User: Fold 2-oxoglutarate and iron-dependent oxygenase domain-containing protein 3 from Pleurodeles waltl.
Amino acid sequence: MPVQKRNKTVEPAENKKRGTSVKKSSPQQDSQRLWLKVVLPIITAAFFGLFVLWSSSTSEDFVTEVLAHQSETVQERFFEVPCSEDYDNHKIFAGCTPTKCGRALTDALITNEEAKTIQRLAERGLALGGSNGGASILDLHSGALSMGTHFVNMYRYFGDAIKDIFSEKDFQLYRDIRQRIQLAIAKSFGISSSNLYLTKPTFFSRMNSTAAKTTHDEYWHPHIDKVTYGSFDYTSLLYLSDYARDFGGGRFVFMDEGANKTVEPR
Ligand SMILES: *[C@@H]1O[C@H](CO)[C@@H](O)[C@H](O)[C@H]1NC(C)=O
Ligand SMILES: *[C@@H]1O[C@H](CO)[C@@H](O)[C@H](O)[C@H]1NC(C)=O
Assistant:
């Protein structure tokens, strides 16, 4: 979630999520998002989407509220918001589509050790390609990997050589963490995890302040996953790096009408 090149500093921009679509008049109708703070500019977007957005704006004029500081270790935190009308435009899946909406935060999903391990896995994959701009993605499910100004299917592109990059143990850890995210979403939103299915896209994302070369690099625009993807009922983000320690800028922002609510990833 980077960019906006006006700054000379190398801070990634912030990841903004809009709580409501433009046509709505009522405030704070964000959809559901499970937001999992954890550790690098690598973000796993599991379940139902990931999206990120950062702006390089550093103005202090904005009304900002911090939902979780980097210095805190959050066991579980839930901020309920009215459910968005955006859900009315899509199929309702009983037992899955949220009836209670909000933003859930936790630092208790994975250990630092696991974060480092999964981060190294992502780095090995991204090292095979990478965007010429500031935002690269790696999707282990579809094989999508940023490469220059486009994407390749790494499984097809590299063939058997991929087996030397990721081991079965890597995939096992990935599946295990994915499963934990699923259970955490189910618990936070009061649904059964068996009614929750992984949808796409689901990917690792690495962002820095290199200027965008294509629109795919422009991760910083405010966005609404339910509108962009339709299939997402919940979005989760798992940070693999720490705000203020591993990177500057790059906070996660829920854009509400009266204030921007930020999360400082750790
Ligand atoms: C939230 O941040 C955006 C820019 O990132 C700004 O345009 C908007 O005015 C801010 N909202 C509030 C309520 O301060
Ligand atoms: C961003 O990451 C890419 C890929 O690792 C690297 O080539 C580039 O130099 C980085 N840019 C900055 C400003 O750190």
Q: What stands out?
A: The pocket of 2-acetamido-2-deoxy-beta-D-glucopyranose (ligand 1) is lined by residues 55, 57, 62-63, 255, 258-260 (CB under 6 Å).
